[in-house]
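Good morning C.,

I know you're traveling, so I'll keep this short. The sequence:
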Amino acid sequence: MAATTTVTDSGGMRIITEVIPATDPRAAQLTSASSPSAPAVSSFQVRGFRKAQPKALGTIHIFTGIIHICFGIILTVSEHGTLSLPVASGVLFWLGLLLLVSGSLLVESEKRDNILLVKICCVVNIGVILSTLVATLVHTTAIAHDIPGCENNMPYQLKAEWCFEAENKMLSNGLDSMFVIFCLLEFCAAVVALAFGYDAIKQHNYTRMAL
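The tokens, ready to paste straight into the viewer:
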């Protein structure tokens, strides 16, 4: 079937309509040009996620994660006998490792147009949000209680000499307060990444359904 052309005059304008059969090579070109490709759609959604500055958020997570792990090593070595609650729970190590993973994924998402990477970032940041809440509870509990080994469990129990030094408790509370601030910063960064990531995923799914 050959292409047919129809000319119509309407209101001082001439409208030319051309009907192309499906077997014509031009029909395939027009079809491919009218529908956006999947990588282009994915790239558009990832650009929306990049408005959250994932590289900056990832740098925050990597930096604080290194601090958590370094202090975890130092405190574990220095506390020979009775370990404090944050050290005994291992929160400094597992939260630090999780932050390193989250930060690395966020920095990598700045470089790649991959919606799957954005989904992985969202899942990991959900873990970061829950972990920072648990870590905050651990550190505030440590602030509210005495230093391990200095509790008044028995009326005539002898305490170590360092239990009567107020500087030790002040130093311990200062470290725990610092980690609470870090947890708040990490929580906010994770919430921002999750919010923008979820919005990008939702737009990606909607675009896929529309196509």
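Safe travels,
E.
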